[in-house]
């Protein structure tokens, strides 16, 4: 709001600011920015900053533990979102990511409640992954393929169970051991282990 009254404090302030050299105003802005940065630094011991630092440390510990848990079992790997992502990246290098994509599609399919959606989703998954010469055909035997085809006539949430189980076993016995031996996972475990050791040395 503009002020036209003589002696108005706001008018005096505006005149005072206008009289300041440009460099002073720029320095003031710079100082304000720096203070803003400093106030958000956790090492200053501010209660919020310290809380953020603790939360970050906790997340790092959790993720390090999670990476090491992936080698305990294939189930542990599949339970972890970051584990599934890392495994998927590895499968891409072997050109076999369709196995995991099919398994994930089946998991999503089981959550479908609408019968109409169930039937359309079942057909879409079958055409993409299961039928002969499908764009992303998974490696299952002829018998399992035919059983799955018959299941489509009365699609239920269980119609891919057998094909999904076969694909899961294939990944667990074949791809998963290679993933654990891969350079990418070995690097992750080294980082997780060193992170855990540094945390212990600081406690």
From TrEMBL:
A single cellular component GO annotation: membrane
Gene encoding the protein: Rgs16
Annotated compartments: Membrane
Primary role: Regulates G protein-coupled receptor signaling cascades. Inhibits signal transduction by increasing the GTPase activity of G protein alpha subunits, thereby driving them into their inactive GDP-bound form. Plays an important role in the phototransduction cascade by regulating the lifetime and effective concentration of activated transducin alpha. May regulate extra and intracellular mitogenic signals.
Key word Iron present: no
GO biological process entries: negative regulation of signal transduction
Protein name, UniProt field: Regulator of G-protein signaling 16
CDD domains assigned to the protein according to its UniProt record, in alphabetical order: RGS_RGS16
Domain RGS, chain residue ranges per copy: 73-189
PROSITE patterns in alphabetical order: RGS (PS50132)
Lineage of origin: Eukaryota, Metazoa, Chordata, Craniata, Vertebrata
Organism for this UniProt entry: Haliaeetus albicilla
């Amino acid at each position: 709001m503009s002020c036209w009254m003589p002696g108005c404090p706001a008018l005096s302030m505006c005149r005072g600011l206008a009289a300041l050299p440009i460099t002073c105003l720029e320095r003031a802005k710079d100082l304000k920015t720096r203070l803003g940065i400093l106030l958000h630094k956790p090492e200053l011991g501010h209660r919020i900053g310290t809380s953020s630092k603790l939360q970050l440390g906790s997340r790092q510990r959790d993720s390090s533990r999670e990476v090491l848990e992936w080698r305990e079992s294939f189930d542990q790997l599949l339970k972890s979102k970051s584990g599934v992502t890392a495994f998927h990246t590895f499968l891409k290098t072997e050109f076999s990511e369709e196995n995991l994509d099919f398994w994930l599609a089946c998991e999503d399919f089981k959550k479908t409640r609408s019968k109409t959606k169930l039937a359309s989703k079942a057909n879409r998954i079958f055409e993409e992954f299961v039928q002969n010469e499908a764009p992303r055909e998974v490696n299952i035997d002829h018998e399992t393929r035919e059983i799955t085809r018959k299941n489509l006539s009365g699609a239920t949430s269980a119609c891919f169970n057998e094909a999904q189980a076969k694909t899961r076993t294939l990944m667990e016995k074949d791809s998963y051991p290679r993933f654990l031996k891969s350079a990418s996972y070995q690097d992750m475990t080294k980082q997780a282990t060193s992170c855990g050791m540094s945390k212990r040395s600081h406690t």
